[in-house]
Structures are given as C-alpha cells and as structure tokens.
Amino acid sequence: MRSRSRLAGVAATLLVVSGILAPAFAEDAPGGTVTGETVTFGQYADQSGPNAAIGAARYGLDAYLQAVNAQGGVRGKKLRLISYDDGYKPAQTAALVKKLVFQDGVFAIVGGVGSPTTAAVAPALNDLGVPLVGMATGSPIFYEPTRKYVFPAWPLYTTDGKAMASFLKTHFEGKKVGVIYQDDSFGKPILAAVESVLGHVEEIPYSPGQVDFSSAVVKLKAAGVDALVLATIAAPAAQILNELPKFNYAPVRVLTGSACGYSEIFKTIPSLEGAYCAAFLPTPEGKDPQWEAFTNAMARYEPGHPAEIYSAWGWLAGQVAVEGLRRTRGPITRQAYVAALESIKGFHTIGGDLSYSSQSHRGIGSQFIWQAKNGRWLTVPNSKVEP
Amino acid sequence: MLLFARSERAALLTLALVVAFPIACGFRTYPLFIATQFAVFAMVALSLDVLMGRSGQISLGHAGFFALGAYAAAILSVRYDVDLLVGVIAGAALAALGSLIVGLPATRLSGHYLGIVTLGFGVAVAQIALKWTALTNGDEGVHTHAIHLAGTVLSSPLHVYAVVFVALGAVTAFVARLPRTRLGRAFGAVRDSEIAAAAMGISVARTKVLAFVISAAIAGGAGALYAALTGFVAPEDFGIGQSLLFFAMVVVGGTASTAGTLLGALVLEGVSQAAATVGGLSLTLIGAAIVGVALFRPAGLKSLWRGGEGSR
Amino acid sequence: MEILPQIVLSGLAQGSLYALAALGIVLIFNAGGVVNFAQGAMAVVTAYVTWALLNGAHVPYPLAVALALCAAFALGMATEMLVLRRVADAQPLTQIVVTLGLLMLLTGLVGMIFGHDPRSLPELVTLPSVALGPVILVPSDVFDVAVLIVLVVGLMVLLRKTKLGLGMRALGQDLFAARLAGISLTRVLSLTWGIGVALAGTAGILAVPNTTLTPTTMDTLVIYGFVAAVFGGFGTVSGAIVGGLLLGVVDNLIKTYLSPELSLSVVFALLLLALYLRPNGLFGRAVVRKV
User: Fold this and answer.
1) Taking the CB of residue C157, how many other CB atoms lie within 10 A of it?
2) What interface predicted TM-score (ipTM) does this complex get?
3) Cβ of C220 and A263 within 8 Å?
C-alpha cells in the first residue's frame, strides 16, 4: 500500500513538474503562408444535430470552390475544403477548429455555421491570427467591435429587424405589431431592432425546441395584434403560421430569411400565400444571374443537394473568401489576405454588395422583402432597406 | 485505475502512457486538447458511476451538474479572476448544492422516475443558462480569462493537460478505493437491497443523498476544469445529448468498474471525435457503437477482462 | 377577450399527442420493463416512410399512413426480436442504453437517407374551424382527440378481451401463471413492441403536419411523452392518458400566464414536486417492495 501511494505521489509530481517546465508557449498556427499548389479552407457545419438543415451551407461552399477550380483556380492555385460536423455543439466546434488549424493547417476558416458555435471560436481565431470569413450568422457580437481577423458577410440581425419594421411602417401604417422571437442572440437583436423603429410591441419569447405555439397565437389574437413578426427559425415559423388559420386569425405575417429558405416551405405551410420574408439573397425564382450560376453549380457538383437559401449561404462565404484571395498581392500570407479582404469595395455577391475597410468589417448592408405569391417567393419592388 | 486497479501492471502501463503521450504527439495543441477533453469527460463518467454503479441510482442529467461547475468557474474567472483551484472548489460546491434539488426527492424515487427527474434537471439547467443572460451571457457564452493555478498561468496546452490528468488520477483513485471504505460499503448495501441496508442500520435516505452530492461535486469540479480547458462555456454544450452520452459511457464501459468506465469514456469520446470528421455520420456511428457494445458485451467493456461476469 | 377556455381546449388537443406518445412508452415498459428512449426516432422513421410513400411512390395519403404504421409495427417487432431480446438477461441499464443507442442510430440514419432539409406532411383533416361562443373548435385538434379515444378503446378491448391482451397483462405481472396458460410470452413481447412503436408513429403522423419534418422533429414531443407517463404513474393506460391531457393543459397555462420560454423547466419543477408528494406518480399505485 505504501509503495503504491509513494508511486502515485511521484507520478503526480512528475506530471505537475513536466507541465510547469514544459514549453510554456502556445503553439503558433501553421499554414500562415500558402506555399504549395492548393489553398485549404476549413469549415464547421452541423451535419447531424438539431440545426443540420442550415448545415447545408457546406454544399454551397464546396460547389463554389469546385466551380472556381474548374476555371483554373485562383492565382494558379486550386482550392480545397475540409468541412467538419460539429453537431451544433460549441465545445465540439472549438475542438474541430483546433484540428483544422493545428492539424490540417488550413489557411482560413470559411462559412462556419451558427452563432454559439462561432462565438466559441471567433476570439481564439482572432488571437491566433487565423482569418474567419463569411460565417453564417448575423449576431451583432461578431461585428462590434471590429476584430482584425473576423470578416462577417451577412447583414446584421438588427438589419433584418429594421427591414421588417420599416416595411411594416411604410406599407401597414397603424397596424398593431406583435413579435414572437427565439430567446437568444438570434431572436433578441431582431426584437430590439423592431422596437427601435416601431416603439413598444407585443412580444412573446420561446426556447429552441418548443412544440405547440397555440397559446402564443391565442394571446396575440386576443391582444388585437394584426401584424406578426416571426424572429424564428424554420420549424417554429411553420408551427405558428399553421396555427393562424385554425383560429380564424389572419394578421400580416413577416418571417426571417432563416425561416423561409427551404424548398418544401409552400407544402409545409399551406396558408403561406401573402406572407412576407426579410431576406438578403435573391428569390429562388427571381431569374437573378448569380442565383442561376449557383443553381447550375449545385446541380453539377452537389447532385442530391438542393440549391436553396441554406446552401446559398455557403456559396456567399465562398465568394467572399475567394475574392479576398484574388486581391491578395505578393506571397499569400494571412496578413496579406486580411489586407486584401479589407480592400474589397462594392463587390457583387449573391447576397448583394459587400464592402470591408480596416475600420469596419460590416459585410452586406442591404435587405429585401419577399412576398409569397402563387406558390413562390417574389421580391417586393422597392423594398430594399439599407442599415 | 492508475494504481488501484486489479492489475498493477495495467495501472503502470496507463501511467506511462499518460506521461508519454505529450512527448509522443510532439506537444502539439490538438492531440493534447483532445486527450485533455477525454480526461474531463472521463471524470464525469466516473462521477456518474459513483451514482449508478456504486449506489444503484440513475442520472440522465449529469450534464446539468457538469454545467453548474463550468459556469461557476467561468463566471468567477471572468468577474474576480480567481485561481483555478478556487474555481474547481466553487464549481464542485455549486453542483453539490444543485444535486440536493434532485437528490432529496431521489430518496423516495428510483428507476425510471429518477431517470426522468434527473433528465428534467439537465434540461432545466440548460434552459435557465440560456435565459439568465445577465449572469451567463445566454447563447453567446462566457469566455474565461487566462487561467492560473497557484500563481502560474496555464499558458500552454501541456499545462492544462498535466493539471487535468492529475485531477483525473485523484478522482480515479478515490472512486476505485470507494468500495473498500465504510461509505462505499453503505452505497453497495443500499444498491443491493434498501431494506436489508436499513435493517443493518444504514440510513438509506442519507446514503442516497450523499451519493448524489459526491457524484455531482466530482462532475462540477470536472466542469470547472472543462471551462479552463475550452475557455468558453455555452448552454448548447450541456443538452440532453451530452447527458445521455455520459450515461452511455458508464454503461458501455461497465458499471461499478473504474477501468471499464474509463474505457467506455475513451471509446465513445474517440468515436465521436473521429466521426465528426466524416460528414453527417456522427450520430449514426456513436449510436452504432453503443448498440454494438451492448449486443456483444452486455455487461460492458469491463467483461473483456472480467470474463463476462454480469455484476452490477 | 377571455382566452382561458381556448387555452385549456388547445392544451387538451396538444395533450392528446403527449398521451399517445406516453401510451406507447408505457405499453412497452409494462410488458418488458424497458423504457424505450428511441420512441421519438421511431416516430420520425414512421413520418419519413409516410413522406417517401407520398412523394416517392405517389401512394394516396390514407394508404400511405396505413402502410407507414404497418412499417412502424414491423420496426417495433424487429427491435424487440433482433436487439432487445439479445440483451434480455443483461442488467436493466444495458437495456436502457441499447434504446439510447438506437435513438442516435435511427436519427443518424434518417438524416443520412432523407437529408436534413425540412420536409412536410399534409394535414389529415382540413375542414374550417367552428366558432362556439368564446372558443374556436379546430377540426384537426378534434381529430387528434378522436384518434386518441379510438385507440384507447381499442387497446382496452385488446387488453381485456383477447388472448394477446391477456399475455400483455401477464408479462407485466405473473410470468409463471402466463406460461401455465400456454401463452408464448416472447411473441407477445414482440407484438407489444410493434403496437407501442405504432402508437408513437401515430403521434408522429398527427404532429408533423403542424410543423416541419426533420430527423429531430419529435425530440421535445417525446420528452413530454415521458413526463406524461411519469405523471400518470408509469403503469396504466388510463394514467398515461390522464397524464398526457393534464400535461397539455398545464403546459399551455404556463406558456400563457407564466413564461413561454421556460415552460419545459417549469413542467419539470412541477413534476419534481408531484413526485416528492406522490412518489408513484399522480395516479400510480404504491408498489410493495419485496426483499
């Protein structure tokens, strides 16, 4: 017994001493200068968890990189994507991003999906000097303060909210507005922005995963709300909109782009006709040339994965990341890449014009309003909103 | 398992592996991080085995206790820049306190009732962490400050590795020794028959609550180390899925077996890390691993060396 | 406008789904002593089979539903015969962990086969709602409750009047007597699993038209099902029904008057309180413990 405890003591001491004497440095991120024939991007995107639907951004990003490669790549180099499945768990994101950066030696992290997942890695990547480009979230925490290596592409969620509110103010003056919002960094900025434009509104929060929204609908109807803003993702929006006709309740309805982007939405919500959606991407039926290029590339490189909003998020991230690479002068280093990204001005992406500067990494500013008409989404004329 | 496992040789080998691993992987960040993360999860699995294997209760919400510890340490680190040791103690204490919420009713409950109550506890902790933004910063999470222990800043992954593995060693030694202590024997008696235990003069209620408190304290301490390791704490990491994974680690490894539980944690954590790199397969592979082990080793992985005995 | 009656009524409709989910759980638990955590994943499989029959094979909707429920029944039987039977002699924890593994495996497989892009199923009943004084009667809600009543009556008849039912009750009580009566208990057990999973599938098919169909659609609903089962005492058909309906109403009241975003936490707090006062559930019978 005594020898055992002595041994245990020795082992513990050994570990502690080796820990303290160990190289007290934090490892530098490798791959800071592209030397070979390929530029490797890394991505985290939920492929199996609760938000695997939006994880389809992976396919849009991959399609864009393949399309660029088919045209000869960028500056003579081919592009490669390593995408990992974080299951929408921030700790897993942190682990996988360590693998991408230290093990796989990616040049930049591109098009990562989600707010809490991105929150887990953004500060660390910035400290390491690894660029984080075009992540699929509009949460204000990634915009203010501007971080040198973090380049969001989306309009802020608050821009979503402002677009919805100003649209209601212009076209539905005097309507009583109600907001159902996800009680987190996605829904709350939208609510705050709506209230900044319209003043106090009726508001009902919910937690992710909630089933049954009948109480919310009954409450808002009883409160006389006749314009309903849904700061929700897809499933809650479907549940709420499907409740409305059951209670003979027909308010004006406005959704977020996150809720109206999937292909079966008109089947899922039979009463969708007339509803609005605040989005920054072109409508799938709008004959937008960029959207057509995206659709063609998806059909070609990602058969079996639809060309829709979620995959378009990845396409957008790819556009921004590659544009930065195109503009990089001299050797492709992370420093040069960041400078190149900051030189982007008025770049036409699939989601609108994008500009960066050394002071601001704001990304896309403008938002549109779509309307559901005859089973498809159409952009409402003159609905463009600048922040 | 370290020094108190049945086979002295296995313990020494494990120890050698733990010391050799950082050198073998060239002190690189990612392998050290993954190994350290495994050690943290293994501590939670061991804590759960105190509850399930040793005292015959069940918890499907251990991620809740883990979360309490992680949040306590992270918030104390951010607001008061406390020493990691203080964080660990505070985390363990908060989790132990939280365990009374379910531990006290647990004296009257068992089996599936207890399962669902603990499941609910885990759900509630995550939901409240999301809601109580003033304290937890909601889904944006808490970023910890630079972690320091006894005046030394834990600046490299190896520091954290060393600290966490020493902690794992201590927890392992405690759990492995437990059956030979008075308390451990009381746990065993209650597990085997509450009525018989009561007849022997053991306070069944007290023993059951104590098992919960000890188990939660270890899980909370592990949570504090987890916050130090990842530097980030957010509600999404403490959902039902995580609780069920902890539960599966214990059963897959084999209850009431320290080495088995460690192996269970190693296998499931290994599968989930490997599976994450194969798009869309994570859940399928973890599920298949759990079902596979259960079908072919119903008593858990411990039966690999214990010859398939089906002890609890 | 007074909304309380409407809130209660809607709660009952939602509660009927919780009751259906609980019913499947309780039935399987009573027969084999296994809490099937994979109920939700199995309900999702049923919904996706319906979706595939509708959209892939263009089968008429009622027929698609019937076929999918048969598939659910087969899935339940197969689970018992191929998986659970093999761990029948292991400790109870192993049986629980097997169903957990199945939950992950099935959810993962559904995602791999059908993708994660949200899908949809049409409503089974599309009549307009009827205003009755202070409340609005929603036909699809009425249909949910009607399905529940029909299934419960059917189950009662099955349990009381048939040999299979006798076997199912015997499994929960006295194995020796059942063997004497010449009932093949292994067959009864697999049939019970079939029925239990078909009940979960029914809840899935009723719930999905109101929302999107993804591999994780049923996660929360099944948690409510577990809570309903525990509220009801985890033993009887009537307990599961009353537990489910009560839970639906209570949950809706919490969402309306207390806190919609914390409703699940509040429900669990109430459950904790209820169990502290009545450890065998609100409607459960005290169990005599034998040494």
Assistant:
1) 11
2) 0.89
3) no
